[in-house]
Amino acid sequence: MRNTTRRPRENRTITVDFQNEATYFQLLGDGKAFVECVIAFLLSLGFQLKHKAMCTGGGCLTRHSHYLRVRLGGVTIWRLQCTTCHAVFTVLPHFVLRYRAIRPEVARDALLATHGGLSLELCAVIGHISPMALYRLICAIGHHSLVTVLTRCGLPLPIYFLADEKHSRCLTAKVYLPTIVRGRVLWHLGYTTEASAVAFTQSYGEFQRAALQQEPSYRVKGVLTDGFDSTTKSLRTLFPGARLGICLRHALTKLPKKLAAIPSPVRTALRSQFHTLLYRVRQRKSLRVVALGQRLRRFADHVATTAGVVNGERVRRWFQDKKAGWYAVLEDPQMPVTSTLLDQAHNAMERKLFAMKGFHHPGGSQQAFLTGLAHLYNLIPYQRRAQHAGQCGVEVEGGTVPTRDWLLNLQILTSGGFR
Length: 419
Ligand SMILES: [Zn+2]
What we know:
The protein is 49% helix and 15% strand. It has helices at 21-27, 31-45, 104-115, 120-126, 131-142, 146-152, 197-214, 229-238, 248-258, 264-283, 288-307, 309-331, 340-355, 366-379, 393-396, 406-413, and strands spanning 13-16, 61-69, 75-82, 88-93, 160-170, 173-182, 185-189, 222-225, 243-246. Helix 7 packs parallel to helix 8. With 419 residues, it is an alpha/beta fold. The chain contains 16 helices and nine strands. The radius of gyration is 25 Å and the shape is elongated.
């Protein structure tokens, strides 16, 4: 089973926006203009080509060779060569997907429908594409790491983030998707068959490796989790210096479960008092850690008087267990306070994983498929009526995308020819 994202092939393919097909076919007859157009596009992106080691890329590009893309009705594809290091770059025009016979406009509709939660089978009904071709397309996108694509958009590696696992199923087996979210962007969407600290360490470790490759001095300052033991252990192993906080909103939903055999109005009242407590503590910036300790003690006493000694004791032990994680949230103003944005990402993934039905088998490319879905999550703009209408997650977080066209962005950002 392929559980890890495959390293992208050492390919030097680049997708270039020629605006329209006619321009491209016109340029095919004029080598000089063709090269100039490619160079102008590269300058507009601000991306560097992936030359061979030691080459500064200062030389010039010349047309090297061409071939015909038979499955696309014989489109001519040119390769350019660096005159210094002889690296060869394949130039794909914007209307051609790498290795695919699918036209981008068909892929666009199918991917958008998949992103919206429509099953692969139904996406195949609305477009001329087989479910398997769509599955393979998403996997192909997913062979490029999230960290590479996001840093190409100018996003800094996340110093603070949310981490948690989504529980899912592969046929009848339970599986887990270790996830890292910063704001509206997914930085990691892994796949494990076990919920152990070892399995999670391996999965979150893939993110860490990719991040360190980008930025060797990368250090995580704070992580917010829901307090699950394997999650905490794996993060502690990977990021020993990081502050590990526990989601405050999660604490609120957990409290009622700690109060057994009491009338519902009493439980509701206690929950609302606990809500006020957390809210007030967050308001008092410099005093908040000290204040939390005192208030938690008083609250446990209050539970004992109103809901009985047994409940009071259970709540007190629970506080004892979790308060270090709550302190961690309150100690550092930059720490995320709730994991709401991570829950939203998980809910969005849930619909798509359900859509995976027929392809969800133990021998599938789960990791690549999930990473592909995560790219869509990061790069497809929010719909017209949404809060961030027209912007994608990457842009909401302050990143920049190459063009106004999300599919073209996906093609460009997952091109192997850029450094
Ligand atoms: Zn070169």
